[in-house]
UniProtKB/TrEMBL annotation:
UniProt EC number: 6.3.4.19
Annotated source species: Companilactobacillus suantsaicola
Phylogenetic lineage: Bacteria, Bacillati, Bacillota, Bacilli, Lactobacillales
Protein name: tRNA(Ile)-lysidine synthase
Keyword Iron-sulfur listed: no
Domain notes: The N-terminal region contains the highly conserved SGGXDS motif, predicted to be a P-loop motif involved in ATP binding.
Catalyzed reactions: cytidine(34) in tRNA(Ile2) + L-lysine + ATP = lysidine(34) in tRNA(Ile2) + AMP + diphosphate + H(+)
Gene3D superfamilies: HUPs (3.40.50.620)
Length: 437
């Protein structure tokens, strides 16, 4: 079949397969997206597609590139949406990712406001192979290798990439045959980014070794996807045994332990990918997680990015973001109602309705959270470490900072739920009422 027809048939088939109805085409003005636009305009009626373009304003030529796409759309009477990126980061680090975030944010907005169900991009076989090799170089994680899929959910609908089976060379041939005008992104030739170095230096060399290289990347991706699908079935079964909770994200650890170490790596990688915490988890962090999950310590935690923590607590795990607590100590007076750790606390004297009894009247009363070295008075003048009491009561490590501790003259008289000095006094004379919501 002629290349021309093959591309048209493929794009048609892919759109049909994913039930694309109202299509938004992402057009940068480069050869790939201009060819895609050419094909789509032959397949779809004008009122069922629109063109979207983002001016990242990172190069002097960008305004003229937008103008090029805009003029093309006006001449052909295509719906056109564009915006200019204003809030670029000050330095270059993370610029590509920030630009992508902005771009996809705008795509999403246009889809939602104009009722498009499908965003179509011109990613092709070279993009797929470059992406896979970049993931190989950066992490080597099987669950990350596949990142450019033919279809994935996006905004109020989906992203579809119908050109993934075509090489850049094929697309360029089509542009030549049909005399399709396009802009040339000069930054493609800078070898500053890894992507460009792969594109310009590495891939041409690899392709000399085997002309079928791009197809082989395609096969590899398909096979990894199939394997991940099989693994996913097993993981879903395991997750159902873990009794997962959402707030905080937690569950039982035992079901994961039926997997061998490499399978656990895949499990946690897959699990974190699904959670979408907005942070990346390194191989070393996953290794540490497996380490603490499989060792004998009852409590342990692994710090992840952005104050997230993976916590092992006895048979359970918890993943939560630790927000620094502002106030950790509060001086209070009798009868005063205070808010502490988001809860209402009130201490008053009481003759009948009491739940705390002491044998002394305090000069100072303090409410706080636990501290190292905290001790609890037991009978006969003996003391017990508060940390020991937490362990005996099987209170998970990560919850211990939430427990309120009440002190009279620097002596602990009460710890929420787990200690009350009255229980250890032979007889007390002063009665107090603690109210806590
Ligand atoms: N500025 C832009 N405006 C509209 N569409 C764009 C723009 N840049 C890229 N696209 C769309 O995304 C496709 C891929 O572009 P490109 O390869 O430059 O992006 P990438 O950074 O590799 O990938 P991704 O789009 O997933 O971030 C293009 O073929 C086009 O469909």
């Amino acid at each position: 079949m002629e290349l021309d027809q093959k591309v048209i048939d493929t794009v048609k088939k892919v759109l049909k397969k994913y039930h694309a109805k109202r299509v938004l085409v992402a057009v940068s003005g480069g050869v790939d997206s201009m060819v895609l636009l050419h094909v789509l305009s032959q397949l779809l009626p004008k009122d069922s597609f629109g063109v979207v373009n983002v001016d990242h304003d990172l190069r002097p030529e960008s305004a003229s590139e937008v103008a090029f796409v805009q003029d093309f759309c006006v001449q052909n009477d295509f719906q056109f949406f564009t915006t200019k990126w204003m809030n670029q980061p000050k330095d270059d680090i993370g610029m590509e990712a920030a630009a992508r975030k902005f771009r996809y944010g705008f795509f999403k907005q246009i889809m939602q406001e104009n009722d498009f169900d499908t965003l179509v991009t011109a990613h092709h076989a070279n993009d797929l192979a470059e992406n896979m090799l970049m993931k190989m170089i950066r992490s080597g994680n099987a669950y990350e290798v596949v990142s450019l899929k033919e279809q994935r959910p996006f905004a109020n609908g989906q992203i579809v990439r119908p050109l993934l089976n075509f090489a850049k060379a094929d697309i360029t041939v089509l542009a030549d045959i049909h005399d399709i005008n396009h802009v040339q992104d000069q930054t493609n030739f800078d070898n500053i980014t890894m992507r460009n170095r792969l594109r310009n230096n590495i891939f041409p060399e690899l392709q000399k070794e085997n002309g079928q290289l791009l197809h082989h990347f395609g096969f590899f991706e398909q096979q990894i996807l199939a394997l991940l699908k099989l693994a996913q079935e097993k993981f879903t079964e395991i997750e159902s045994q873990m009794q997962l909770q959402e707030k905080p994200i937690s569950g039982l650890l035992n079901p994961v332990l039926q997997l061998d170490r490499q399978q656990q790596t895949l499990f946690w990688g897959n699990f974190f990918t699904k959670l979408q915490l907005g942070i990346s988890i390194s191989n070393r962090q996953i290794d540490s997680i497996i380490e603490v999950v499989t060792n004998n310590d009852a409590n342990a935690s692994i710090n992840l990015a952005d104050s997230w923590q993976f916590i092992k607590s006895y048979d359970n795990f918890v993943i939560r973001q630790i927000k620094p607590q502002k106030t950790t100590e509060l001086a209070i007076t009798l009868g005063q109602s205070v808010k502490f750790l988001k809860r209402d606390f009130n201490l008053s004297t009481s003759e009948s309705d009491f739940n705390l009894t002491t044998d002394f009247i305090p000069k100072t009363i303090t409410l706080r959270t636990r501290r190292t070295g905290d001790k609890l008075l037991l009978s006969n003048g003996f003391h017990q470490k508060l940390s020991k009491r937490f362990i005996n009561e099987k209170i998970p490590e990560y919850k211990r900072d939430d427990y309120l501790v009440l002190l009279f003259d620097n002596r602990i008289v009460w710890v929420e739920k787990i200690y009350n000095m009255s229980d250890y006094l032979k007889k007390g004379s002063k009665h107090y009422k603690i109210k806590l919501d």
